[in-house]
Amino acid sequence: MTRYIALLRGINVNGITITMTDLADTFTGLGYTDVKTVLASGNVIFSIDKPLANHEELAALKARIEAALTARFEYEAWIVLIDHETLDRVVRAYPFDEKHAAWHPYVMFSSEPGHLSELAGHARELDAADERVELGHGVLYWEVKKAVGVKSAFSKKSGKVKYRATTTTRNLHTLHTLLE
Question: In the Cβ-directed half-sphere of 135, how many Cα atoms lie within 13 Å?
Fold first, then answer.
Protein backbone atom coordinates (compact mmCIF):
# COMPACT_ATOMS: atom_id res chain seq x y z
CA MET A 1 0.00 0.00 0.00
CA THR A 2 1.20 3.49 -0.84
CA ARG A 3 -0.25 6.58 0.83
CA TYR A 4 -1.04 9.63 -1.32
CA ILE A 5 -2.42 13.03 -0.54
CA ALA A 6 -4.67 14.83 -2.99
CA LEU A 7 -4.62 18.58 -2.55
CA LEU A 8 -7.73 20.01 -4.17
CA ARG A 9 -7.79 23.57 -5.44
CA GLY A 10 -10.70 25.95 -5.13
CA ILE A 11 -13.31 24.02 -3.15
CA ASN A 12 -15.55 25.47 -0.45
CA VAL A 13 -14.92 28.94 -1.88
CA ASN A 14 -16.54 30.87 -4.71
CA GLY A 15 -19.73 28.80 -4.61
CA ILE A 16 -18.09 25.37 -4.96
CA THR A 17 -19.27 23.59 -1.83
CA ILE A 18 -18.32 19.96 -1.23
CA THR A 19 -18.86 18.12 2.04
CA MET A 20 -15.93 16.10 3.26
CA THR A 21 -18.17 13.02 3.52
CA ASP A 22 -19.08 13.30 -0.18
CA LEU A 23 -15.44 13.90 -1.05
CA ALA A 24 -14.33 10.81 0.87
CA ASP A 25 -17.12 8.76 -0.75
CA THR A 26 -15.85 9.78 -4.19
CA PHE A 27 -12.36 8.50 -3.44
CA THR A 28 -13.73 5.30 -1.91
CA GLY A 29 -15.91 4.84 -4.99
CA LEU A 30 -12.78 4.99 -7.13
CA GLY A 31 -11.47 1.97 -5.22
CA TYR A 32 -8.98 3.70 -2.95
CA THR A 33 -8.67 2.59 0.66
CA ASP A 34 -7.97 4.19 4.03
CA VAL A 35 -9.60 7.40 2.75
CA LYS A 36 -9.51 10.31 5.16
CA THR A 37 -10.26 13.99 4.65
CA VAL A 38 -8.46 16.63 6.68
CA LEU A 39 -10.08 20.02 7.27
CA ALA A 40 -12.72 21.33 4.89
CA SER A 41 -10.28 22.79 2.39
CA GLY A 42 -9.80 19.79 0.14
CA ASN A 43 -7.16 17.52 1.60
CA VAL A 44 -7.67 13.81 1.01
CA ILE A 45 -5.35 11.08 2.23
CA PHE A 46 -5.81 7.68 0.59
CA SER A 47 -4.01 4.45 -0.20
CA ILE A 48 -3.47 2.63 -3.47
CA ASP A 49 -2.42 -1.00 -3.84
CA LYS A 50 1.00 -0.47 -5.37
CA PRO A 51 3.42 2.42 -5.79
CA LEU A 52 3.24 4.30 -9.06
CA ALA A 53 6.10 3.36 -11.35
CA ASN A 54 6.58 6.65 -13.18
CA HIS A 55 5.33 10.15 -13.95
CA GLU A 56 2.85 8.81 -16.54
CA GLU A 57 1.12 6.63 -13.92
CA LEU A 58 0.95 9.60 -11.53
CA ALA A 59 -0.54 11.75 -14.31
CA ALA A 60 -3.12 9.04 -15.05
CA LEU A 61 -4.08 8.82 -11.37
CA LYS A 62 -4.41 12.60 -11.20
CA ALA A 63 -6.57 12.69 -14.35
CA ARG A 64 -8.80 9.89 -13.05
CA ILE A 65 -9.44 11.68 -9.76
CA GLU A 66 -10.04 15.04 -11.44
CA ALA A 67 -12.53 13.45 -13.87
CA ALA A 68 -14.42 11.80 -11.00
CA LEU A 69 -14.55 15.06 -9.01
CA THR A 70 -15.69 17.03 -12.05
CA ALA A 71 -18.43 14.50 -12.84
CA ARG A 72 -19.71 14.22 -9.28
CA PHE A 73 -19.53 17.85 -8.17
CA GLU A 74 -20.01 19.62 -11.51
CA TYR A 75 -16.99 21.91 -11.37
CA GLU A 76 -13.64 21.90 -13.13
CA ALA A 77 -11.52 19.96 -10.64
CA TRP A 78 -7.80 20.58 -10.24
CA ILE A 79 -5.62 18.65 -7.85
CA VAL A 80 -2.00 18.15 -6.96
CA LEU A 81 -0.95 14.65 -5.88
CA ILE A 82 1.92 13.95 -3.55
CA ASP A 83 2.97 10.76 -1.81
CA HIS A 84 3.34 10.67 1.97
CA GLU A 85 7.14 10.29 1.94
CA THR A 86 7.64 13.25 -0.38
CA LEU A 87 5.33 15.42 1.70
CA ASP A 88 7.33 14.53 4.79
CA ARG A 89 10.58 15.62 3.05
CA VAL A 90 8.93 18.86 1.87
CA VAL A 91 7.77 19.74 5.38
CA ARG A 92 11.12 18.93 6.99
CA ALA A 93 12.90 21.12 4.41
CA TYR A 94 10.86 24.25 5.22
CA PRO A 95 13.58 26.95 5.09
CA PHE A 96 12.04 29.61 7.32
CA ASP A 97 11.19 29.74 11.03
CA GLU A 98 7.80 28.00 11.08
CA LYS A 99 7.20 28.96 14.69
CA HIS A 100 7.59 32.70 14.12
CA ALA A 101 4.32 33.95 15.69
CA ALA A 102 3.85 37.02 13.48
CA TRP A 103 4.22 35.11 10.19
CA HIS A 104 2.22 32.54 8.21
CA PRO A 105 4.27 29.59 6.91
CA TYR A 106 3.09 28.24 3.53
CA VAL A 107 4.07 25.70 0.91
CA MET A 108 2.91 26.07 -2.69
CA PHE A 109 2.51 22.91 -4.76
CA SER A 110 2.07 22.68 -8.50
CA SER A 111 1.34 20.13 -11.18
CA GLU A 112 3.36 22.42 -13.49
CA PRO A 113 6.88 22.88 -12.02
CA GLY A 114 7.65 25.70 -14.45
CA HIS A 115 5.01 27.81 -12.74
CA LEU A 116 6.82 27.49 -9.41
CA SER A 117 10.09 28.58 -10.99
CA GLU A 118 8.34 31.51 -12.60
CA LEU A 119 6.79 32.56 -9.31
CA ALA A 120 10.12 32.13 -7.49
CA GLY A 121 11.55 34.63 -9.96
CA HIS A 122 9.53 37.33 -8.19
CA ALA A 123 11.50 36.85 -4.95
CA ARG A 124 13.77 39.82 -5.60
CA GLU A 125 10.75 42.11 -6.04
CA LEU A 126 9.34 41.30 -2.60
CA ASP A 127 9.80 43.33 0.55
CA ALA A 128 11.63 40.89 2.85
CA ALA A 129 10.20 42.74 5.84
CA ASP A 130 6.77 41.47 4.76
CA GLU A 131 7.32 38.18 2.93
CA ARG A 132 9.85 35.78 1.47
CA VAL A 133 9.77 32.94 -1.04
CA GLU A 134 12.27 30.20 -1.73
CA LEU A 135 12.16 27.50 -4.35
CA GLY A 136 12.39 24.00 -2.93
CA HIS A 137 12.47 20.58 -4.55
CA GLY A 138 9.15 20.52 -6.40
CA VAL A 139 7.56 23.20 -4.19
CA LEU A 140 7.78 26.89 -3.41
CA TYR A 141 8.13 27.91 0.22
CA TRP A 142 6.53 31.18 1.26
CA GLU A 143 6.22 33.05 4.49
CA VAL A 144 4.27 36.26 4.94
CA LYS A 145 3.55 38.52 7.86
CA LYS A 146 0.10 37.85 9.27
CA ALA A 147 -0.61 41.59 9.18
CA VAL A 148 -0.02 41.59 5.40
CA GLY A 149 -1.60 38.24 4.46
CA VAL A 150 -3.48 37.97 1.17
CA LYS A 151 -2.80 41.63 0.40
CA SER A 152 0.87 40.82 -0.15
CA ALA A 153 2.62 41.36 -3.46
CA PHE A 154 3.34 37.64 -3.82
CA SER A 155 -0.22 36.65 -3.01
CA LYS A 156 -1.45 38.89 -5.83
CA LYS A 157 1.08 37.42 -8.27
CA SER A 158 0.38 33.80 -7.33
CA GLY A 159 -3.39 34.36 -7.45
CA LYS A 160 -3.43 35.15 -11.18
CA VAL A 161 -5.73 33.08 -13.39
CA LYS A 162 -2.67 31.60 -15.13
CA TYR A 163 -1.79 29.62 -12.00
CA ARG A 164 -5.25 28.52 -10.85
CA ALA A 165 -5.35 25.17 -12.60
CA THR A 166 -1.85 24.16 -11.56
CA THR A 167 -1.05 25.50 -8.09
CA THR A 168 -2.41 25.21 -4.61
CA THR A 169 -1.04 26.54 -1.33
CA ARG A 170 -1.21 24.99 2.12
CA ASN A 171 -0.30 26.33 5.52
CA LEU A 172 2.60 24.39 6.99
CA HIS A 173 0.48 23.56 10.05
CA THR A 174 -2.07 21.83 7.78
CA LEU A 175 0.74 19.82 6.21
CA HIS A 176 1.89 18.68 9.66
CA THR A 177 -1.69 17.54 10.33
CA LEU A 178 -1.74 15.60 7.05
CA LEU A 179 1.40 13.75 8.10
CA GLU A 180 0.09 12.74 11.53
Answer: 14
